[in-house]
Amino acid sequence: MKLRTLRVSMPLCGKRVLMRIDANVPIKKGKAMDGPQGRIARSAVDIDWLMQRGAKIILMTHLGRPEGKFVSAYSVAPVAKRLSELLQTKVKTVRGIVDEKVQKAVARLENGEVLLLENVRFHPLEKKDDSVFAKQLAALGDLYINDAFAVCHRPQTSVHAITKEIPSYAGPLLAQEVNVLSKVMQHPRAPFVLVVGGVKMETKLPVIQRLLPRVQTVLVGGALAHAFLKAKGLEIGRSVYDEEGIVQAARMLKQAGKKIVLPEDLVVVSSLRKDAAKRVVGVSEVGPKDRIVDIGPKTIERFLAAIGEARTIVWNGPLGYCEIKPFAKGTFLIAEAIAKRTGKALTIVGGGDTGPVIEEGGFTDQYTLLSTGGGAMLTFLSGESMPPIEALEI
Ligand code: 3PG
Fold first, then answer.
1. Threshold 0.85, pTM exceeds
2. Catalytic site residue from 135, 200, 238, 311
3. Are residues 289 and 220 in the same domain?
């Protein structure tokens, strides 16, 4: 896959560059949770490159799922703050996306300055891949750059419809991710082990289904495992799951049960406090009031054995409630084992939720690719169409 990218020789000085990034990171107490290899930090490298060339940069991102209306908790102010620190310059903000206020703010931009628009998902037409909204966005720039790989599995206005309205290019971060993932997809080395956890079942389950013929083993943990355990008729107590997920999980177990490795033991607690007493139980011993927060020691051993033999490893999603440190053991040990396997295996790791564990372990530069995408990375590897990326193909 060859993408239209910016050439170093392209004159960008004074040009209004409309750039879509994916700064969708957790926000805690008004602060963007984004480490040195986080989504915002990695976008900042490319923004800096444009600043050095004297472009007027207009940034767009989504944050969370505000469903087409203003939700203050999803305002991009914390993103602007993080970007300002990284770029060592004030990133301007505006309380709008395409209205007159925004047009005036764009007109006032000096060469090398950066303006961040408000969350594009505050606009009701963002998720509709709408040509009218796309035209309004496109009018803000002379050219458009998509550097938001992590959201390219969603054909939405600011990553897809917009490409029909304005000269459009793949940003360096997006191009690099597509490049490495394409190579893996073309020549995966066997055994190919897929490790999946976390939430967003509605995105991940269909993609895992498509990936099944290509992989030898799927190790399932985290909230995703709850759907499979429930599909097998097991008790998961008060752990999260969704009904639709159970139906899909049951179908998958029927089709490819042998490839799918589920936890055999689990860590459970009665409340999600970090000082809660933990118990290790077998999968059939979870009580109705328990919450599953991690994979157990036997499961970890089984997963590490599979990773130790793999020659291609793709991992997305935590294997437990890893944002609470005492419940992050399984996720940490998997992160470490995959890092150790790099070199002997192609190791592709993606998704925001595991970022803090990976950074804390010092593993960020120890994988073949640390992708910014979770669902997007899996979708790409499954070979499913990704219209926002296809729109940038030469
Ligand atoms: C992600 O975090 O996977 C991307 O930013 C996409 O977010 P979404 O699942 O809310 O579309």
1. yes
2. 200
3. yes
120 plus 199 within the same structural domain: no
| CATH code of residue 377 | 3.40.50.1260
Q: How many domains does the chain have?
A: 2
Q: How is residue 137 written in tokens?
A: 């966005």
At residue 299, the pLDDT reads 98
Is 375 known to be catalytic? yes
Q: Is residue 390 part of a domain?
A: no
Pocket mutation for ligand 1, best pick of 21, 22, 67 (most atoms within 8 Å of C-beta): 22
Binding site membership of 378 for ligand 1 (Cβ less than 6 Å): no
* Residue 393 included in any domain: no
What separation in Å is there between the alpha carbon of 203 and the centre of ligand 1?
10
The reply to whether 200 and 294 lie within a common domain is: yes
Ligand 1 centroid vs 120 CA: distance in angstroms? 13
Is 182 inside a domain boundary? no
Would you give the distance in Å from CA 254 to the centre of its chain? 29
- Are 286 and 192 part of one and the same domain? yes
Let me know whether 346 and 293 are in one domain.
Answer: yes
Q: What pLDDT digit, counting tens, does each position of 274-331 carry?
A: 999 999 999 999 999 999 999 999 999 999 999 999 999 999 999 999 999 999 999 9
Cα separation of 106 and 103, whole Å?
5
pLDDT at 327: 97
The residues, ordered by sequence, that sit 6+ positions from 117 with a Cβ below 8 Å of its Cβ are: 58, 59, 60, 76, 94, 96, 97, 102
| Gap from CA of 150 to ligand 1 centroid (Å) | 7
Residue 92 sits in which domain range?
A: 16-173
DSSP helix/strand/coil, 59: strand
Q: Which atom of ligand 1 is nearest to the CA of 376?
A: 3
Residue 39 annotated among the catalytic residues of the structure: yes
The number of the ligand 1 atom at minimal distance from the alpha carbon of 148 is 5
For ligand 1, atom 2, which residue shows the shortest CA distance?
24
Looking at 32-171, list the stretches that DSSP marks H as alpha helix, in order from N- to C-terminal side.
39-52, 77-87, 100-107, 131-138
Show the low-confidence residues of the chain (pLDDT under 50).
Answer: none
Q: 351 and 212: one domain?
A: yes
